């Protein structure tokens, strides 16, 4: 079977990466429209409805518009924007989220690709909430640092183009200081939390890669869980995962530093449990590529599941 795939927004950062991952595959036919027609509604509608599967790499409003143009009931959609991540009728595209999620994605006609920050946060937290270790009303916080490509063309220009009006030579900066980041609702809903986590992101002068970190005060959690308890739950949750690896406690204990770019260019994610049982404190860390498992790689993984291909194909 050769499936027809159309990437709406293929000229953007995520779109280019997805196209690069899909080009050369014999099981796919990539549809395209002329560059001058990319904003032409009729040309886009024709391509959207001719495809077996569409990947939307667009701003939120443009993604919603594209969905509205689809009238072919056989056209399936993966939306890489924020527009549909908590929308009714859309399946959340994190195969490792919970048992049965892969099957839901494979059967879905509308899949919302996760954000990069929520991917790391949910991988660390969702199994612990499901196991009852973290109460659903716990005041969680999540911090980390990402490569600047996660901000798209505008942020890439800000860091790379000396002629850009907002060009910066800074090494690292925080953002979303008003705590209203668009990823927060996604984190809360898909973690099953009754209150929003406190999200404090930063971006630094490197292109790809990220560290997502959740501090846990074990000593005040119900039952005072130990590091081994946390590690056992995460290890069991991802025992059969193709793209998630949990470092052993011994390996984590031997690490004195962690580089955010360690998994750049890859689609896997590594989880680590750091901490001290005597202090009753833990640092849960997810290491991934913001454009890999955090964006384009995840979209290709979902595409493979939806079209019945090997999950790792092209990754």
How would you characterize this protein structure?
The protein has 315 residues and is of the alpha/beta class. It has 2 domains: 3-114 and 295-307, 3-Layer(aba) Sandwich (Rossmann fold), CATH 3.40.50.720; 116-290, Dihydrodipicolinate Reductase, domain 2 (2-Layer Sandwich), CATH 3.30.360.10. The chain has 10 helices and 13 strands. Helix 4 (101-107) links the parallel strand 5 and strand 6. The two termini are 19 Å apart.
Quick overview of this protein structure:
The chain is of the alpha/beta class.
Question: How is the secondary structure organized here?
Answer:
Elements lengths: L2 E6 L4 H10 L5 E4 L9 H10 L2 E4 L3 H10 L6 E4 L11 E2 L8 H7 L2 E3 L3 H15 L10 E7 L4 H9 L11 E3 L9 H8 L6 E7 L5 E7 L10 H11 L6 E3 L2 H6 L14 E8 L4 E8 L3 H16 L8
Parallel strand pairs: 1-2, 1-3, 3-4, 4-6, 5-6, 7-9, 11-12
Antiparallel strand pairs: 7-10, 8-9, 10-13, 12-13
Helix pairs in contact: 1-10, 4-10, 5-7, 5-8
Main β-sheet: number of strands, strand sense, barrel status? 7 strands, mixed
Give the second-level CATH assignment, the architecture of the largest domain. 2-Layer Sandwich
- Under CATH, the homologous superfamily of the largest domain reads Dihydrodipicolinate Reductase, domain 2
Q: What series of H and E elements makes up the topology?
A: EHEHEHEEHEHEHEHEEHEHEEH
Query: What is the straight-line distance between the termini?
Result: 19 Å
Q: How many strands?
A: 13
Strand order of the largest sheet: 8-9-7-10-13-12-11
Mean pLDDT: 92
Count of alpha/pi helices: 10
Q: Shape, please?
A: globular
Q: How many domain units?
A: 2
